[in-house]
Amino acid sequence: MSTSYFQCGRYRFARDRRPLVMGILNVTPDSFSDGGQHASRDAALRHAEQMIAEGVDIIDIGGESSRPGSASLPLEQELARVLPVVEALRDCGKPLSIDTYKPETMRAALAAGADLINDIWGLRMPGALEAVAAAEAGNAGLCVMHMQRDPQTMQEAPHYDDVIGEVRGFLRERVDALRAAGIDDSRIVLDPGFGFGKTADHNLRLLGELPQLAVDGLPLLAGLSRKSTLGAILGGRPPRERVAASIAAAVCAAERGAYIVRVHDVQASVDAIKTWWAVRQQRVDAAA
User: Fold this and answer.
1) Which domain holds residue 217?
2) Domain-embedded: residue 1
3) What is the mean pLDDT of the chain?
4) Active-site option among 198, 226, 227, 256
């Protein structure tokens, strides 16, 4: 059952503190919102330094785009993109997350100093569970996400008879699989996978009923930043014009129990979450 803390590799976070802000660091040329901006090592490190100055709690490094329709990236290219960034940031004072589904990348990133594996495939790829359960994985945090089909086809008329029940059932099954592999609950975070095989209405229902997805009280991650559902709400605005909506969605997720919000706009998100937390606690918390 859930614990009072989240073990994220070298870092331990109390579950009774404000929600954590995970900043997105895409080392890719083709991500849907900021593709190419931080593709080089130096540009990625500059952006990471900026996020740290803005108060980020976790840095999520991704070398392969998972936007709808994106093709799989060869392993060697993914490693070449992410490992130099992990090695350069391993002593930055913040936990490093790796957004990958490849077991080989998981092992290499953990060896290089990563603290969390963020897997859109929910650790279903052959060898993934073994990689994160191995002694070498230590106490790395594990984010398990729901996705219908795969990035190439996930947005081709996604359908559910009961989106809440089906997503919760998937997360339940994955939690059981992780436990059977000997992984402690303190390492597990669950992600309903907003935008991964869901329509805008599916996403809004998942957000509205987010507490139902916290299997056994495990912490939840919500990643809605700049996504197409927000664009639909705003009448088709492009990703870079969805910042205010992204902040509102992050606060909505926190209000409904999200423990981690994954965002592009770190400073604004940190400010909003801190303000929401102060109102909720009815006091200013210097440690927040």
Assistant:
1) 6-281
2) no
3) 93
4) 227
Could you confirm whether 227 is annotated as catalytic?
Answer: yes
Query: What pLDDT is stored for residue 32 in this prediction?
Result: 47
* Residue 209 vs residues 110, 213, 253: alpha-carbon distances, Å: 34, 8, 10
* Residue 286 counted as domain residue: no
Residue 82 CA to residue 67 CA, distance in Å, equals 18
In this predicted model, what pLDDT tens digit does every residue of 44-66 receive, in sequence order?
999 999 999 999 999 999 999 77
**Token pair of 35 as six digits:** 């593709």
Total number of domains constituting the chain: 1
128 neighbors 119 (Cβ within 8 angstroms): yes
Q: C-alpha distances in angstroms, 149 versus 193, 201, 263, 281?
A: 12, 18, 24, 40
- 29 vs 20, residue with greater confidence: 20
Q: What is the CATH number of the domain that holds 57?
A: 3.20.20.20
The proportion of the chain whose per-residue pLDDT surpasses 70, expressed as a percent, equals 93
To the query of whether residue 262 is one of the catalytic residues in this protein, the response is yes
* Alpha helix segments (H runs only) across 128-242: 128-133, 163-180, 200-208, 228-233
On the question of pLDDT at 38 being above 80, the answer is no
Domain contains 31: yes
Q: Catalytic one among 18, 198, 226, 262?
A: 262
